[in-house]
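Exercise 7b. Backbone tokens:
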């Protein structure tokens, strides 16, 4: 591997310390095509070592567009890389990321890292056991100016309440988004797709979640009420089924200094480049990043608890009768 200061050398895959770290990509869908691949190709500090996908023809096309190589075998890409980024459905991602870590590759994971607590914890254990660095690409933690805003609010403290809503229109009747066909998003909804974004802001500012309440709204809409270790409480309304005219993402904090509203951010491309920088820094220093695989596993634990609360509500129905859960 590229032996940046503080990294653990990997046997059987040594690399010259003079060349940039090699980062490969697993995944060929719209998220990989629009964010991960162009960011890796443009990053001045890394070598884009190749692409693997479940559809070899898609991997070949994406690799050609970015001037790198396609791999038909994921393990071959691991052997040719010092790190890999994953842009795959969460429950496809988790076992592949564990394999990559076992092969000595540092990992940039997508959120959520998995949709089952057991899988998320197993992945975190695998990454820890391998001694590799990890980053979970929660966009708001790496985008500017949201990343700076989160740090400032965490340092300020004194927060009493958080209020958030993330109203996506991915599943609206007239949506033409390429992400709308994603099977895992259809199954898990806004709770799992946009919930990690909100939690990735709340936890570093308000502290870990100590209790979770969750209620169902229209379609995939979920209403979260959280208590935090700081004593603050927070709410979040999450959906991918809002009418396009109502689509919006916002988060505000209330406390000793009044109200602080999270600023907007400029897309995911620059944020992913910043996530790559964060991984390189974690490799160099040997210090885990605060948004690493353990943090990702904690997000899965919270979301799974919320999902279980909704399932109990939907089974019971308004009068306590068993009824079929809504999509």
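Sequence design result:
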């Amino acid at each position: 591997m590229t032996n940046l200061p503080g990294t653990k050398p990997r046997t059987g895959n040594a690399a010259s310390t003079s060349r940039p770290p090699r980062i490969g990509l697993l995944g060929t869908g719209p998220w990989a095509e629009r964010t991960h691949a162009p960011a890796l190709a443009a990053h001045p500090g890394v070598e884009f070592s190749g692409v693997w996908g479940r559809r070899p023809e898609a991997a070949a096309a994406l690799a050609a567009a970015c001037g790198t190589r396609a791999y038909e075998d994921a393990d071959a890409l691991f052997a040719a890389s010092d790190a890999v980024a994953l842009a795959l459905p969460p429950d496809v991602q988790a076992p592949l990321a564990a394999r990559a870590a076992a092969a000595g590759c540092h990992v940039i994971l997508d959120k959520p890292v998995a949709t089952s607590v057991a899988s998320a914890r197993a992945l975190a254990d695998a990454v820890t056991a391998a001694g590799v660095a990890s980053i979970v690409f929660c966009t708001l933690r790496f985008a500017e100016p949201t990343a700076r805003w989160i740090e400032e609010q965490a340092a300020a403290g004194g927060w009493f309440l958080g209020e958030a809503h993330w109203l996506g229109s991915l599943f609206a009747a007239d949506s033409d988004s390429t992400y709308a066909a994603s099977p895992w998003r259809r199954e898990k909804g806004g709770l799992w797709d946009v919930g990690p974004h909100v939690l990735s802001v709340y936890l570093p500012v308000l502290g870990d979640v100590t209790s979770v309440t969750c209620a169902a709204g229209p379609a995939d809409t979920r209403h979260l009420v959280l208590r935090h270790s700081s004593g603050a409480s927070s709410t979040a309304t999450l959906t991918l089924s809002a009418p396009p005219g109502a689509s919006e993402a916002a988060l505000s904090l209330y406390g000793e200094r009044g109200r602080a509203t999270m600023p907007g951010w400029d897309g995911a491309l620059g944020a992913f480049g910043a996530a790559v920088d964060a991984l390189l820094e974690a490799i160099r220093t040997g210090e885990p990043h605060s948004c690493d695989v353990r943090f990702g596993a904690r997000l899965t634990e919270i979301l799974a608890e919320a999902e279980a609360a909704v399932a109990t509500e939907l089974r019971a129905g308004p009068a306590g009768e068993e009824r079929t859960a809504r999509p």
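Instructor comment: Residues 91 and 230 are 32 Å apart (CA to CA). Residues 5-16, 320-327 have pLDDT under 50 and may be disordered.
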